[in-house]
Design brief:
single chain; three-stranded antiparallel beta sheet; 33% helix; globular
């Protein structure tokens, strides 16, 4: 995956990341700290049909977009949106090890 977003070429690769790999990455990097809104430490990763749901955030004034996974606080619904492409790259690198 290049640094530029090519949605058609990368969606399948990003969706190959499993729930367990997302949780492992977020946990190992300290990204599962308590919710900044309510202090709860329970999070869920939005999945559909066994694949992570990917959200697309458009970049204003550009045809580019940022892809994110949706991680929701189990108590208040606060959303965190870690970069899906970033996580997928890290997971692919871990798979090669």
């Amino acid at each position: 995956m290049s640094s530029h977003l090519h949605v058609d070429d990368e969606i399948e690769t990003i969706q190959s990341v499993s729930f367990e790999e997302i949780v492992d990455f977020l946990t190992s990097t300290g990204a599962t700290k308590p919710c900044e809104a309510c202090g709860n430490d329970g999070w869920s990763v939005n999945m559909k049909d066994g694949k992570p749901v990917i959200s697309m955030l458009p970049v204003l004034g550009s045809s580019d977009a940022t892809l994110t996974f949706l991680v929701m606080c189990k108590r208040c619904g606060n959303l965190r949106m870690p970069g899906a492409k970033f996580i997928a790259k890290a997971v692919l690198a871990r798979r090669k090890q």
